[in-house]
Amino acid sequence: MRYLLLFVPALLLTAQTPAASKKAVDHKALSAVSVAKNFKESGSPTAPVKIEIYTDYECPACRDLYMNTLPSLTSDFVATGKVQLLHRDYPLPQHQYSRLATRFANAAGAIGKYEVVANQLFVSQPEWSVNGNVEAAVAKVLSPTDMEKVKAMVKSDTHLDDTVTTDVAMGNNQDHLTQTPTIVIIAKGKRDVIGGGMPYTILKQYLNQKLAQ
Amino acid sequence: MKRWLLIAGRLIIAGIFLYAGYEKVREPWLQFAISVESFKMVPETWLEPIARILPWFEIALAISLLPGIFSRWFSLIATGLFAFFLFIGIRASVKGLNVDCGCFGAGHSGAIDAEWFVEHVAMLALGLAVTVGEFLRARRPKESLLH
C-alpha cells in the first residue's frame, strides 16, 4: 500500500497535464462571422445555421468527411436552405503537398471550377499525397485552356494564399483548432467547435436539435 | 491502510472524475459522441445518450466519493469504470482503430498511446488500492464508545 504514495504525485501530474495543454474553447456567444460571398460558400445566406469546415486536402480524415458526410449534409440541409456551408483551408505543416493542393483549388475557384477541383483533390488524394503530382490530378478534370489559367495562377499569383492565411489565423486564434477536419456550427451567434470526422447520422441529429431550438 | 491515505486516494479519484466530466459537459455533446463512435463498440443510436449521460455520471460519481458515505461501493464503481476504460483502450489498440478517447475533452490528446496506458493503469491501480482499503476498513469492528 505504501506504493500508493508513488502514484499520488504521478496522478496529480497526469491529471493536470490536460489543463496545461488545453486550449480553452470559447463557447460564449459570438456574433456570426460575416464572410463575403465567395466560391467556397454554398447554401442560403439566410439559413438559420451556418457550418464552417476546416480541412486539409492531404488529411485522410478530411477526405472521409468530404466523401462520406458532406454529400448527405449538402442534400438534406444545404440544398433545403437550412444550412449555409463555408469551406476553410487549414493546411497542416506536416503535409508537404497540402499548400500546393490548396493553391490549385483556390486558383480553380477563381475561374469558377472550385467544386470540381476540390472534389478531384480529395478523390485522388491517395495518389498525389504519395507522388506529389497535384498538377496531374487536377489536369484530369479541367480543360486544357482552364488548366493553363490555373497553372499560371498557381505559379505566380501572390494573392492566392490570402484566404488561406485568414482561415489559418481564424482557426488558430478564434476556433483554437487542434485537428482537421474541424467543423464549426454557428447557430444563434454561438460557435460550437467540433474536431474530428463524424458519421452523418450523429451530425444530422445534432443539426436537427440546433434547428429546433 | 492509513486512514488519511485512503481519503487522499478517494479525493484524487473524485478529482479525476470531476475533471473528466466537467471538460466534457462544457463541450457540445457531439464532440464526445465522435470520440465514443471512434471505438466502434455501440450502435449509432446509442451515441447521443452516452455522450449526454456519461459526463454527468462521472461528475455525480465524483461528488458521491467526496463525503465518504458508502465510499467502498462508490470506489468499486469508479474502479470498474477505470477497468472498463482500460479494456476498451486495449481493444481499440488490438483492432488498430484510430481512436480519440475524449477522456478529458477535446483539448486533451485522446490518442491511445504509451502515455495513455500509463495514465490508465495508474488510475486503475489507485482505484483498486482504495477499493480494497475501503472494504478492509469496513470489515474492521467499530471501536466501542465505552472504551
Summed up, what is this model?
Chain A is an alpha+beta fold and 213 residues long. Helix content of chain A is 52%, strand content 13%.
Strand order of the largest sheet of chain A: 1-3-2-4-5
Quick one: biggest sheet of chain B? none
Beta-strand residue fraction of chain A: 5-15%
Estimated radius of gyration of chain A: 20 Å
| CA-based shape of chain B | globular
Topology order of chain A in helix (H) and strand (E) letters: HEEHEHHHHHHEEH
State mean pLDDT of chain B (0 to 100 scale).
90
- Continuous helix count of chain A: 9
**What is the averaged pLDDT score of chain A?**
84
Structural class estimated from helices and strands of chain B: mainly alpha
Strand % of chain B is under 5%
Main β-sheet of chain A, in a few words? 5 strands, mixed
Q: Would you mind describing this structure in some detail?
A:
The complex is a heterodimer of chains A (213) and B (147). Chain A is an alpha+beta fold and 213 residues long. Chain A has helices at residues 4-21, 60-78, 98-110, 114-123, 125-131, 134-139, 144-156, 162-173, 200-212, and strands spanning 41-42, 49-55, 83-89, 182-187, 190-195. In chain A, strands 1-3-2-4-5 form a 5-stranded mixed beta sheet, sandwiched between helices. Chain B is mainly α and 147 residues long. In chain B, helix 1 (3-25) packs antiparallel against helix 3 and helix 4 (71-95) packs antiparallel against helix 5 (114-139).
Please outline the helices and strands.
The complex is a heterodimer of chains A (213) and B (147).
Chain A: H1 4-21, E1 41-42, E2 49-55, H2 60-78, E3 83-89, H3 98-110, H4 114-123, H5 125-131, H6 134-139, H7 144-156, H8 162-173, E4 182-187, E5 190-195, H9 200-212
Helix pairs in contact in A: 3-4, 3-7
Chain B: H1 3-25, H2 29-38, H3 44-65, H4 71-95, H5 114-139
Helix pairs in contact in B: 1-3, 1-5, 2-3, 4-5
